[in-house]
Recover the amino acids of this structure.
């Protein structure tokens, strides 16, 4: 196992990396507020249209319910760190969904988006969901953050609409059932700031990204009463123009995915604090190995790297299949094990980490909690 851990450490040089004196744990989660297959009726509509569903977990991706969100909050309340604070889940939101009703009226020849703060599109119904988000935020159990306006590339969808053929037919079939797309079946939809195919392949220009981030931030403000201060790009597809667009909108912390080794947080050129995820905790996608995660945690804490757990929203869904119950049980097991092994453990979120680096402390339950921050030499940051 030690050799596995060693192989996780990346070799890429990092700018101004930071290490920390206390075991720090962050929980980060993507895709909140993003609609998928509407409900059981929507599922049956798609099946009747000839689409075989059930081959992949994301065929069952829907949207969280208020009960799902409350269940997550209940679990987080059960746990506390050495400062007496519960874990806080960083929830990265898509702030708008396709407006199926408006698009249907125009024959699905154009795209229209409905801000999440204005409700859900078409026949979608999730009573109490927006209030559940806000309640968790008010209790400091959730930290809403920015994922984007939508998850996919609007340019890719427009290309498909204009191109005709199988892609257009697939979109129309899905949109009639009020499902925007099923990514694993159609990766050509890309991600918000990145279009995978010609014409206009690659990242959007800076001006376009700035417009998208500005609109997403305004949608976020409408939903939560304030603008976001941290972000994670859909599909982790972002570049320096994305960093600049985020910085101009007041974002100062960004999250990156796993797969690049265990890396220290550091600042990017645009002044953004970059945090790297270290564990993919995805019960819908793979068997969980709690002992392996604890080995990775030990490796992180030994070097002063925060343990940043990635867990996507699908793992908490229950409408088409109960992904929620086994996920909560496994997460409960992991958090309990971490609390037992590390008496000085601190549960923090993105804003706390930024505060620790900026001031050497963060606020927890009205009390200042100090954490020593050390600047890591480049050779140490890239060492195996």
């Amino acid at each position: 196992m030690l050799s596995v851990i060693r192989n996780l450490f990346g070799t890429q040089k990092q700018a101004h990396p930071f290490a920390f004196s206390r075991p720090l744990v962050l929980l980060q989660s993507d895709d909140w507020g993003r609609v998928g297959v509407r409900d059981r009726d929507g599922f049956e509509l798609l099946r009747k249209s000839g689409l075989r569903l059930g081959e992949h977990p994301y065929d069952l991706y829907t949207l969280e319910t208020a009960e799902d969100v409350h269940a997550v909050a209940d679990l987080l309340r059960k746990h506390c760190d050495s400062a007496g604070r519960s874990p806080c889940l960083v929830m990265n939101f898509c702030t708008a969904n396709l407006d199926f009703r408006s698009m249907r009226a125009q024959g699905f020849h154009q795209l229209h988006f409905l801000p999440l703060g204005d409700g859900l599109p078409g026949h979608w119904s999730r009573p109490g969901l927006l209030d559940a988000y806000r309640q968790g935020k008010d209790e400091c159990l959730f930290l809403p953050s920015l994922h984007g306006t939508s998850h996919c590339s609007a340019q890719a969808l427009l290309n498909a609409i204009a191109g005709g053929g199988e892609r257009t037919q697939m979109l129309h079939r899905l949109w009639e059932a009020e499902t925007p797309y099923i990514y694993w079946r159609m990766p050509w939809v890309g991600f918000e700031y990145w279009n995978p195919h010609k014409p206009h392949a690659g990242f959007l220009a800076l001006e376009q990204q700035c417009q998208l981030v500005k609109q997403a931030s305004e949608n976020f403000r409408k939903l939560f009463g304030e603008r976001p201060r941290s972000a994670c790009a859909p599909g982790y597809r972002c570049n320096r123009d994305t960093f600049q667009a985020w910085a101009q909108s007041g974002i100062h912390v960004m999250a990156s995915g796993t797969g690049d080794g265990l890396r220290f947080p550091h600042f990017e050129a645009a002044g953004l604090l970059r945090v790297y995820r270290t564990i993919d905790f995805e019960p819908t996608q793979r068997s969980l190995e709690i002992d392996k995660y604890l080995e990775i945690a030990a490796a992180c804490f030994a070097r002063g790297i925060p343990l940043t757990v990635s867990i996507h929203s699908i793992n908490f869904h229950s409408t088409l299949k109960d992904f929620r119950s086994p996920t909560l049980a496994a997460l409960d097991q992991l958090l309990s094990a971490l609390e037992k092994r590390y008496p000085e453990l601190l549960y923090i979120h993105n804003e706390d980490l930024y505060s620790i680096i900026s001031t050497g402390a963060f606020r927890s339950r009205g009390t200042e909690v100090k954490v020593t921050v050390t600047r890591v030499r480049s050779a140490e940051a890239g060492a195996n």
